[in-house]
Design goal:
Elements lengths: L1 H14 L7 H22 L5 E7 L5 H9 E7 L3 H9 L7 E4 L2 H10 L2 E7 L8 H13 L1 E12 L5 E2 L4 E2 L2 H11 L2 E8 L8 H6 L2 H9 L1 H16 L5 E3 L9 E7 L1
Parallel strand pairs: 1-2, 1-4, 2-3, 4-5
Antiparallel strand pairs: 5-10, 6-7, 8-9, 8-10
Helix pairs in contact: 1-4, 2-3, 2-10, 6-7, 9-10
The chain binds S-adenosylmethionine (SAM).
Length: 258
């Protein structure tokens, strides 16, 4: 666990965030993910308000800020203290978000509040120990309010795989984990990932030429980001609704209930 903490602390010190190493890929892909999650939250809470929300594995707080604009009270936890420090530095004007890297504070929060919405965006795949993963999923589930949602973005792989900081579970593996802790899948979507582009939109955004130009020249970075954001704003091509069998190989957005 400590090795992983060190890994994320180093990563934030190196690139200023915890996402894709390439700043062009990170900026646009995070923009697309935020757009997708904003839409999902709006649809889920069309008629009800969000009292308590939690961002598990918040990184530098991109999704916490999104939660902060919807919910009254947000608790954002990350295992890595340097990452939380960075989140605090760029918290913006929202004063309803608490950032913490204290596991004790996290446990108190999970035990004393019921959450209408819990987000965990590309975090669970980084918990390599299966028992720890089951335990945290159980705690997150227990802390959901009766009508609450747990919304995840995770990789779903055709074949299980693992490196020193990430595990790639199959659809069957994720399903059995959710079943084991008593979480019910309400809906799944999938979206393309920059390094495995199949969708039309993503193919053009992350072509080798664009990535090269944006990493070489600052003015090209700014120009391509502007163009890319514009295309994302005006397209839904990168998100597909999927059934249980064709969820493979992509980044999946999974909406769960208790
Ligand atoms: C790929 S980053 C995603 C960050 C953020 N959710 C986002 O999408 O911008 C994964 C984050 O999970 C955190 N993390 C890794 N293992 C964790 C754990 N066991 N509990 C909480 N956070 C963890 C890392 O420190 C890192 O900030």
């Amino acid at each position: 666990m400590n090795d992983l903490k060190l890994y994320w602390n180093n990563r934030v010190q190196q690139v200023g965030h915890t996402g894709w190493m390439n700043r062009y890929v990170y900026t646009l892909d995070q923009y697309a993910r935020l757009k997708v999650i904003r839409k999902i939250v709006k649809d889920l809470f069309d008629k009800t308000s969000i009292e308590n929300a939690l961002d598990y594995g918040c990184g530098i707080g991109d999704f916490s800020k999104l939660l902060g604009s919807f919910a009254k009270d947000v608790f954002s936890y990350d295992i890595a203290d340097e990452v939380i420090k960075r989140a605090g530095q760029q918290r913006g004007l929202l004063s309803n978000i608490i950032y913490s890297s204290s596991e004790e504070q996290l446990n108190i929060r999970l035990e004393t509040k019921r959450h209408d919405l819990i987000l965990s965006i590309t975090v669970l795949g980084h918990i390599l120990d299966e028992m720890k993963l089951e335990l945290i999923l159980q705690k997150l589930k227990n802390s959901l309010s009766p009508n609450g949602y747990l919304v995840l973005i995770e990789f779903v792989a055709e074949k299980s795989d693992q490196n020193n900081y990430q595990k790639f579970n199959t659809s069957e593996k994720w399903s059995s984990l959710f079943k084991y802790v008593g979480l019910i899948v309400e809906k799944k979507y999938s979206m393309d990932v920059p390094n495995n582009p199949t969708g039309v939109l993503y193919k053009s955004l992350f072509s080798k030429l664009n990535v090269f130009l944006a990493s070489k020249f600052d003015f090209m970075f700014l120009l391509l980001i502007k163009k890319g954001k514009n295309r994302i704003d005006n397209s839904n091509d990168f998100i597909l609704e999927v059934g249980p069998l064709n969820i493979q190989k992509k980044l999946s957005i999974i909406i769960l209930k208790r």
